[in-house]
Amino acid sequence: MAVHRLRRRMKDITEIFCQYRECARHIWNQYFRFLQDGLDCFYNVQNELFDSLVLVQIGIFDWHRNSDEPLNRVLLAPNPNLESLQLYFDQSSDQIMHTYKVETISVSSLKLAFIDFFDWDEQGFRDFTFVRAMVLE
Predict the structure, then answer these.
(1) Residue 108 DSSP one-character state
(2) Torsion angle, CA of 132/49/53/24, rounded to 10 degrees?
(3) Which residues are CB-contacts of 91 (< 8 A; sequence separation ≥ 6)?
(4) If pLDDT is split at 50, 70 and 90, which confidence band does 97 have?
(5) pTM over the 0.85 mark
(6) Is 53 within 8 Å of 98 (Cβ atoms)?
(7) Contact partners, residue 89, CB within 8 Å, separation at least 6
(8) Contacts from 100-107 at CB under 8 Å and sequence distance 24+?
């Protein structure tokens, strides 16, 4: 679930994020996946999709999507039925090979800022199954 702080109250914006995810997924799988430079071209389209389908819809006009920058005003609220989550912390010093430290963290003490949806395989069919986020607390 994604929530957005709106004048001291939280608003559930999960459906907005689901619509963005489905749109980006469809456009990648149907149109960009087979292109020679599809991944590079898709990043530009994906940024525009996020701005239009998410940011404009929730009233954020002074921030634009950057693939590595967290959207601190949108917090991810893990399923309250879960006690803990497994988080993968990137410990890589380069962009080619990634190594991860895996930690199990209690959901009750977790505060996450959304970065993006992703799949481990960026070149093939994508579902945007996973969420990339920054741990705030």
Answers:
(1) G
(2) -60
(3) 99, 100, 101
(4) low
(5) no
(6) no
(7) 100, 101, 102, 103
(8) 105/135, 107/78, 107/79, 107/80, 107/82, 107/83
